[in-house]
């Protein structure tokens, strides 16, 4: 995993806000070297971003974690779709 510069983090935040339609999304640098860059919405961490460089090409992988307890309650309609 490669570390990200402050400029990359800012550019990534602009891109993710546009792609995900969330102006309240923030991309936060790690508190110390070697940790993941965190993505948050309204201060709640929702995932991490990892930078990969292979043969001179850079890509970013976004991993979002959603806890089952954060999902809305199941309704009759959602059970019927299964």
From TrEMBL:
InterPro entries: DUF3126 (IPR021473). This is DUF3126 family protein. It comes from Gluconacetobacter liquefaciens (Acetobacter liquefaciens). The lineage of its organism: Bacteria, Pseudomonadati, Pseudomonadota, Alphaproteobacteria, Acetobacterales.
């Amino acid at each position: 995993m490669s570390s990200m510069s402050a400029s990359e983090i800012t550019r990534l935040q602009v891109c993710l806000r546009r792609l995900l339609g969330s102006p309240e999304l923030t991309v936060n640098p790690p508190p110390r070297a070697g940790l993941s860059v965190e993505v948050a919405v309204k201060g709640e961490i929702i995932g991490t971003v990892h930078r990969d460089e292979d043969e001179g090409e850079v890509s970013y992988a976004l991993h979002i974690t959603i806890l089952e307890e954060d999902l809305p309650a199941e309704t009759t309609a959602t059970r019927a779709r299964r």
